[in-house]
């Protein structure tokens, strides 16, 4: 009975806080109070999944630290910079989760959500998508596609940061984010632009990588096809996940007003982008050797060279090199190889 009394008091205090922070919604709330589970439930789910994803990210960051000590400084700056930013997000989310469950009046407050959702999302998505644009530039040798991807990524991030500016002025609680006031309306518009452009950018990246990795499929050696197959699978999976999370965020933002359904996927998007970025880098550890090479996996100094040495490849096999964080596959001129072989026969 005591617990029931405490629960009822918590709900009454929370609803009173929502009413007092939204005087324009007093009529609708008094006629039918909002379902508290639709306000707190998505936030609880988002907090739990975010904590889990940050744990996975920490493991991946540690593996990267061990496996790739010879990566370029710019790559290390991006990796550790993203991790530091998401560590700040983790601390902010944890602090507000603690306040949410210890202070009924803080249950529906926005708090610093305007920062740790759109600002961190805009930064991580920009880094990851521009990194993919650089890989496409290395593989294709053409700047047009990479510039287009970078511009869309910058548009998405700028829209997210603009939404953060309006969201910080929209109101004190999450319900006010769907209110008709001008700041909330502009926040929803820029959020929609950010999520949609981010999803479009991910789709373009996936299609570009698929085309570039399969255009020489007929002349690939068997081992090279295995490498390309894994790269394709990784590219499709990671970009599909990020685009689906972005689409889910914008869909729930507009389809379910007066709820926090959108917050679950929106707060997870930075973690999803960061995990896919770290996964893409760490996948170099066993792209070729996999379980067949204990030396490459056991010695961190050899992890960046986990592809087969060039001198061990036969003349008919493509040359596979690691340049920083990109895999470059150089296909030999088969006609030249045939001419050399025939000249040696004579």
UniProtKB/TrEMBL annotation:
Pfam family, one: DUF6534
Keyword GTP-binding on entry: no
Keywords, sorted A to Z: Membrane, Transmembrane, Transmembrane helix
Residue ranges occupied by any DUF6534 domain in the UniProt entry: 198-285
Segments crossing the lipid bilayer: 43-65, 77-94, 114-134, 146-169, 189-213, 234-256, 262-281
Span of the signal peptide: none
InterPro entries linked: DUF6534
Lipoprotein as UniProt keyword: no
PANTHER family the UniProt entry points to: CHROMOSOME 1, WHOLE GENOME SHOTGUN SEQUENCE (PTHR40465), DUF6534 DOMAIN-CONTAINING PROTEIN (PTHR40465:SF1)
Protein name: DUF6534 domain-containing protein
Source species: Moniliophthora roreri (strain MCA 2997) (Cocoa frosty pod rot fungus)
């Amino acid at each position: 009975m005591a617990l029931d009394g405490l629960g009822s008091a918590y709900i009454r205090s929370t609803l009173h806080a929502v009413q007092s922070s939204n005087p324009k919604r007093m009529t609708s709330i008094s006629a039918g109070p909002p379902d508290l589970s639709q306000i707190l439930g998505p936030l609880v789910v988002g907090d739990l999944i975010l904590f889990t994803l940050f744990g996975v990210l920490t493991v991946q960051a540690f593996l990267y630290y061990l496996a790739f000590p010879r990566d370029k400084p710019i790559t290390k700056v991006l990796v550790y910079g993203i991790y530091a930013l998401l560590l700040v997000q983790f601390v902010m989310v944890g602090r507000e989760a603690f306040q949410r469950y210890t202070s009924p009046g803080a249950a529906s407050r926005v708090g610093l959500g305007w920062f740790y959702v759109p600002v961190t999302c805009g930064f991580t998505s920009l880094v990851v998508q521009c990194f993919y644009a650089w890989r496409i530039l290395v593989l294709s040798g053409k700047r047009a596609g990479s510039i287009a991807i970078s511009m869309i990524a910058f548009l998405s991030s700028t829209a997210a940061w603009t939404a953060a500016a309006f969201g910080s002025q929209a109101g004190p609680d999450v319900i006010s984010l769907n209110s008709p006031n001008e700041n909330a309306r502009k926040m929803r518009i820029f959020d929609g632009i950010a999520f949609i452009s981010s999803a479009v950018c991910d789709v373009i990246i996936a299609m570009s990588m698929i085309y570039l990795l399969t255009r020489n499929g007929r002349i690939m050696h068997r081992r090279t096809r295995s490498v390309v197959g894994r790269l394709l699978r990784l590219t499709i999976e990671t970009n599909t996940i990020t685009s689906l999370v972005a689409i889910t965020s914008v869909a729930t933002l507009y389809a379910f007003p007066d709820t926090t359904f959108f917050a679950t996927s929106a707060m997870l998007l930075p973690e999803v982008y960061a995990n896919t970025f770290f996964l893409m880098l760490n996948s170099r550890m066993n792209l070729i050797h996999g379980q067949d090479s204990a030396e490459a996996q056991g010695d961190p100094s050899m992890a960046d060279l986990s592809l087969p040495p060039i001198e061990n490849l036969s003349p008919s096999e493509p040359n596979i090199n690691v340049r920083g964080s990109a895999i470059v596959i150089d296909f030999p001129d088969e006609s030249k190889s045939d001419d050399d072989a025939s000249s040696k026969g004579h």
